[in-house]
Amino acid sequence: MALNRRDFLQNAAKAALLPTVAVHLPVLGQAVPPAAKPDIALRIESATLDIGPGVSIRTIAYNGQVPGPTLRLKEGVPVAFDVTNATPNEEIVHWHGLAIGVIPDGAIEEGSPIIKPGKTLRYSFTPKPAGTRWYHTHAMAMDNLALAGYTGQFGFLLVEGKEPTPHYDHEVNLAVHHWEPSFVPMVETMRSQSANIPQTSGSDVGYKYATFNAHMLGAGEPIRVKKGDRVLMRLLNASATENVVLALPGHKFHVIAMDGNPVPNPSSVEVLSLAVAERVDAIVEMNSPGVWILGSAIGAERAKGLGVVIEYANSTGEPVWRDPAPAEWTYTQFAASQPVPEPADTFVLTFRDAGALNGSKFDTWTINGDAWPKVKPMMVEQGKRYRMLFRNASGDQHPMHLHRHSFEVTKIDDKPTSGLMKDVVNVMPLQTLAVDFIADNPGDSLMHCHQQLHMDYGFMQIVKYKA
Fold first, then answer.
1. Whether the Cβ atoms of residue 86 and residue 115 lie closer than 8 Å to each other
2. Which of 160, 191, 223 is the last residue of a domain?
3. Other CB atoms within 10 A of residue 91 CB
């Protein structure tokens, strides 16, 4: 029986870290003999990160590093992971963007098992589809900002397929994260700003620091390149709540994939917008020698550390930042516009902030007036096409994620689109956006806003397959 997310942390130990005890639990997904060694071992453990001069962060990470180990898998080749929980809290790992079974997916709402403190759980599955995926905790935080998505529990999961990748000379994997969160009052200026540009602080959580991978701007090694290099950049927003806007002065990002899926219309842009949990694969041609800052287009975010130095060979001097020209970010520039098939059914889903309910000090989020776990499931039949019509009736942005399926963005406000396959889509304030998915992976599938605070306080739904 799946646990209620609000019960998920109730029994978390308050003492020091418990010793790890390897226990062979039933294999999840693939039939792997209990005595067989795993392909990969991950350990959830506390870690101290020196993210900048004099700035140390105490957090929880995979194998003591942030991001966790980069996992390179082959599409269609079964793998087994042993994940050991060396923390005093119940934990769970979600393999984000993979079309795998309910049990190994890593969401207690679907019935995936938790990892008790001091225990080891084996995850086994056959990875698909190919592309830039990632893995992260799917635990609750509620009002404890030292847990769940606020920690360093995230890493790249790269699934290699048969399709060729455009030529590149180097690859760089960069994950955005924000650190030292605290609860801050919502102010009206934040709401008005979030209605116009991707928000950077429109929730009730604020942050002191931000990093690419484990370092603030100016700390750690620069990314060293040569003139003429083609660099494949995989960019991941692994923040708990903060959307980001990124630029590299003097250069353009040629976007070839979003959320790991090739885009129908690869395009070059000066600015990237990544909502929480989104990924972008882009080729950057290094044709502007110098020492530059790849970082947030918002000065306050760069001041927190959200940037990294790009250094050309034989170039010296202080890193340069130039504000990019104003540009609209829209999914439509990467999509096609051919007609799409009519769905078997459309689920109209309206998002609202219901305010603080039942004595909570935080706002409860609702879909069609219902907050998790008291929701009406979306019922589907295997093999049919369905549409989710997201209607954002709030002043916040919502990065919506559907587990175990990819979806096609089919309409943004009044503009039809096609071909753009994603697993997270950012719905702007007062926007209506449609996505279609094929019910081709039976079993319960969670759908939720990926902002940790929203997810913790009701912003979830579930897709169920009819018998």
1. no
2. 160
3. 26
Q: State the total domains in the chain.
A: 3
Asked if residue 443 and residue 361 are part of one domain, the reply reads yes
Q: Is residue 339 part of a domain?
A: no
**pLDDT tens for each residue of 136-190:** 999 999 999 999 999 999 999 999 999 888 999 999 999 999 999 998 876 533 4
Length of the chain: 467
Using 50, 70 and 90 to split pLDDT, how confident is the model at 35?
low
Q: Are 292 and 302 in contact (CB under 8 A)?
A: no
Residue 310: HSE in the Cβ half-sphere, 13 Å Cα cutoff: 27
- C-alpha–C-alpha distance, residues 417 and 338, integer Å: 7
Distance CA 381, CA 137 (A): 30
Whichever domain contains 259, its CATH number is: 2.60.40.420
How many Å from the N-terminal Cα to the C-terminal Cα in the chain?
18
Report how far apart, in Å, the C-alpha atoms of 335 and of each of 256, 307, 437 are.
11, 29, 16
Which strands form 244-247's sheet, in the order they lie side by side? 223-225, 307-312, 291-296, 244-247, 271-274
Residue 21: pLDDT over 80: no
Q: Are residues 192 and 302 in the same domain?
A: yes
Give the contacts of 443 (CB within 8 A, at least 6 positions apart): 101, 102, 110, 404, 465
320 and 184 in a common domain: yes
Question: How does residue 358 score in pLDDT terms, banded at 50, 70 and 90?
Answer: low
Residue that is last in its domain, among 91, 125, 160 = 160
Question: What sign results for the dihedral spanned by CA atoms 288, 293, 296, 300?
Answer: negative
Neighbours of 394 (CB within 10 A): 20
CA nearest 303: which of 293, 289, 312?
293
Residues spanned by the domain of 302: 170-329
In a domain, 335, yes or no: no
Q: How many CB atoms lie within 10 A of CB 130?
A: 20
Alpha-carbon gap, residue 349 to 351, rounded angstroms: 7
